[in-house]
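Please decode residue identities from the backbone states below.
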């Protein structure tokens, strides 16, 4: 057979990195992510861990910044990563899943699913979380959702044609492995789930537009499904830009926190969006004074006292300090607020 093998075309042509990077959307995405990662590493002075401030400068998804009008942060997180390990695993996922899915979907549809899923993940993160977030994971989970839908559709088609039901495929396995990991600390489960659902629904619609053997074309139905998905994304996107909504979520997160430092952190971020919020200024000010930061806390209470309803709370706080034998702080507060009607 060897003497004739040169006449047999290979079913699996040799993989070429240049062709992959330049000729596929998965490759182009990997290339752009790699360039951005090198820039991040250079600015962070580390390839292993990305500086949080650098990530914010480069466009990390941040609810406060979004609510301040920086709406491009819905898109830029897809190209940022928190360090070498984060970048490596996401890149491997884009390579392997993209290499399989893009030839099936076609480059145009693959890019649409990736882009929409990344956007869906960022929006879900902004609406349901108050933490800074980066990474292509939302888009990757969208590809997993896309592959999962195709896997189920192909399985159903084979069953209808042959009567044999195929076993669960690799995308179901990927989901079963990766979904529980999404709920570990420091991982943005909201972005993962948002991307997964977006990718699944987008593929459901696309398969009724793209010519294939499994579904009859139904463009009006597909457009209605895609229109519904886009409407949800627009609503969620606007919700994530709503300063009042984000402020309320930050206050809720602060109230829920068990550590004083964490409470102060969330209240401080909420005050960036509503700097005249009297009750919030009082909460942060009283916490800071209890932490020993008298000057900063006093400044908050003085500002909070502009709200006529806060004077009584300040009076109660002074009594609380006295009951804890913190007479020095109590006397300082009395000096500043003794002229108030509630002191």
């Amino acid at each position: 057979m060897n003497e004739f093998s040169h006449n047999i075309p290979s079913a699996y042509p040799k993989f070429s990195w240049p062709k992959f990077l330049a000729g596929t959307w998965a490759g182009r995405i990997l290339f752009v992510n790699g360039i951005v990662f090198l820039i991040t590493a250079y600015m962070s002075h580390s390839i292993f861990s990305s500086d949080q401030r650098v990530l914010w400068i480069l466009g990390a998804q941040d609810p406060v910044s979004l609510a301040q009008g920086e709406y491009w942060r819905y898109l830029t997180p897809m190209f940022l990563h928190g360090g070498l390990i984060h970048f490596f695993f996401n890149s491997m996922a884009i390579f392997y899943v993209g290499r399989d899915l893009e030839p099936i979907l076609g480059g145009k549809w693959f890019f649409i699913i990736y882009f929409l899923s990344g956007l869906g993940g960022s929006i879900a993160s902004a609406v349901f979380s108050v933490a800074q977030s980066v990474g292509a994971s939302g888009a990757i989970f969208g590809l997993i959702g896309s592959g999962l839908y195709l896997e189920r559709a192909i399985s159903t088609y084979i069953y209808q044609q042959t009567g044999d039901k195929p076993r669960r495929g690799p995308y179901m396995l990927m989901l079963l492995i990766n979904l529980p990991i999404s709920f570990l600390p420091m991982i943005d489960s909201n972005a993962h789930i948002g991307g997964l659902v977006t990718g699944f629904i987008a593929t459901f619609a696309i398969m009724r537009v793209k010519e294939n053997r499994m579904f009859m074309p139904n463009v009006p139905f597909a457009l209605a499904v895609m229109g519904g998905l886009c409407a949800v994304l627009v609503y969620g996107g606007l919700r994530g830009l709503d300063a009042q909504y984000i402020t309320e979520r930050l206050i809720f997160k602060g109230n829920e926190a068990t550590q004083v430092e964490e409470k102060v952190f969330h209240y401080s971020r909420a005050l960036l969006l509503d700097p005249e919020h009297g009750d919030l200024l009082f909460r942060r000010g009283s916490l800071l004074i209890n932490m020993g930061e008298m000057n900063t806390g006093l400044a908050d209470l003085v500002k909070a006292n502009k709200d006529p309803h806060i004077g009584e709370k300040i009076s109660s706080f002074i009594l609380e300090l006295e009951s804890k034998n913190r007479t020095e702080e109590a006397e300082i507060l009395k000096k500043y607020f003794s002229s108030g009607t509630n002191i």
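Observation: The first helix runs from residue 17 to 23.
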